[in-house]
Amino acid sequence: MYDLLIGPFQEFEFMRRALAGTVALAFGAGPVGVILMLRRMSLVGDTMAHAILPGAALGFLVAGLDLVAMTLGGLAAGLTVALLAGAVARATDLKEDASLAAFFLMSLALGVTIVSMRGSNVDLLNFLFGSVLALDDPTLILMASIATVSLVVLAVIWRPLVLDCVDPGFLRSVSRVGTPAYIVFLTLLVLNLVGGFHALGTLLSVGIVIVPATVGRFWARDITGMIAVAVGTGAVSGYVGLLVSFHTGAPSGPAIILVAAVVYIVSVLFGPVGGVLPRLLPRRHLEA
Amino acid sequence: MIPQLAFRDLTLGYDRHPAIHHLDGTVERGALLAVVGPNGAGKSTLFKGIVGLLRPLSGRVDLCGLDRREVAYLPQVADIDRSFPVSVYDLVAMGLWRSIGLFAGLGAQERHRIHHALEAVGLTGFERRPIGNLSGGQLQRVLFARLLLQDARVIVLDEPFNAIDAKTAADLFALVRRWHGEGRTILAALHDLEMVRTSFPEVLLLAREKVAWGPAEDVLTPANLQKARRMCEAFDEDASECRVAAE
Fold it and tell me: What percent of chain A clears pLDDT 70, i.e. is strictly above it?
């Protein structure tokens, strides 16, 4: 039992680092994911995650595997795409989802091309699926900082952010902070995706943001509960996923997201809030 | 008589087509004004212009020195996401935005006010309900409770009693009367002409432009209502530019 559950982390430093990294990710990504889901923006998250790729790849092209260059590149690219897609949707008749899809495909193609210009296939795989088992000190500090900043900033913009989801018209009538709060939120999203990128790669980093949030919806009725469940799911998926990967030799990033996916499927089936089975249970209706 | 709202040659519309055409007039402070007219007469458009959601094509709305945020607005269809997991209490509490702003917590005084607002609309005991579980009438009561807390000088209600049963409408109208008694300025778009005749001292009859404005008995004459019905036609796609504006 000990060898199965705790031993790997006690024995290997890289496992401890990976665990610390994923838990940090879960704390930032949980609340961001819940807001994203409640705003019906889950696919926007996906797009942004891909949008990071060409930026990070440019950083890589210029400076090699340099944390600062790749992070800044990813941030810049993610924010640019977020703003451009919004601008295209507003300036033309194209709906925002279509314009996002166009940008996401563009980014993916561009990113893969740029990485291939300099790197090997291994580098490409690292970009796409991350390298959670090779987190060095600066990367860990970056990920932990992103989680900390996310939580603090979310606390600051929480009220307008939530009100902007529930009743945007009302928020506009009492205050002008709605749009700035939304832009700050998009920035947090990109930050978390960049943090996740180092561990899980561009294709999977959005997984730790979205999947735990969708799990939260099946277990809690209020936002606070959803966030708690999402953070818990993210952290537990990290822990279990790393163990699965350690014992079976499965790639660790995908293992983490797969574990989260299993939790998701269980939640869809058994979740007390709108799960499939609780609905099917033959229970008599109430008196009033 | 102190003016609270003034329309100065106001034209509001969409894609250059006017939905309110060259409206002039003044709403006194403390007025209780019913805005009536057929569908498409421009009632909602006028209200959007007042609260600043729609920029005038020409002319202007003068708030007479009032901050736009002192105008509370109840839209015809509130764009509320009812699937969002937020409680009645939290939604009503947001009416206190001007006093609590971004960060301030709810003190004893605020909780007291929220309690009283819920009591006033008959929703005591609904505090923890998610808004998704409310009926249409209950949601309207919640929105009125929030309006109560907003404590605004001017209150703009766009068809507040539509699709609501008589009991709820009567309860909510009692609140409107109370606001009127407190000296607030109230504009309400309504279709129930009976209610307007009995309860509103002042009426604006709209049909893209002002048909009549004054005491109910002078405005709601058969001739005026007939005229309003005829004036409300669809936009003319090939309309030429309006000359009045250029003069």
Answer: 99
Domain residue limits, chain A: 2-272
Q: Going by CATH, does the domain composed of A2-272 fall within 1.10.287.70? A: no
Q: Which of B80, B96, B151 to mutate to test the interface with A (most CBs of A within 10 A)?
A: B80
ipTM associated with this complex? 0.81
The three-point CA angle A195-A200-A205 to 5° equals: 65
Q: Burial code of A163-173, b = ≥16 C-beta within 10 A, e = fewer? A: bbbbbeebbbb
Tell me, yes or no, if B58 comes closer than 8 A to chain A by beta carbon. no
User: Is the model's pLDDT at A121 over the cut of 80?
Assistant: no
In single-letter form, the type of residue at position B18 comes to P
Who contacts B231 (Cβ-Cβ below 8 Å, separation ≥6)? B207, B208, B209, B211
Q: Of B95, B120, B151, which marks where a domain is finished?
A: B151
Tell whether B98 lies on the interface with A, counting CB pairs under 8 A. Answer: yes
- Beta strand extents in chain B (DSSP E only): 3-14, 17-28, 32-36, 58-62, 71-74, 154-158, 185-189, 202-207, 209-215
Q: Domain range spanning residue B47?
A: 1-66+153-247
CB contact, 8 Å: B243 with chain A?
no
Question: Using CA atoms, how far apart are residues A109 and A107, in angstroms rounded to an integer?
Answer: 6
User: Mean pLDDT in each 10-residue stretch from start to end of chain B (247 residues)?
Assistant: 89 87 91 91 91 89 87 85 90 88 81 92 90 90 93 92 88 93 93 91 91 91 88 68 63
Residue among A158, A152, A144, A147 at smallest CA distance from A35:
A158
Same domain assignment for residues B139 and B166: no
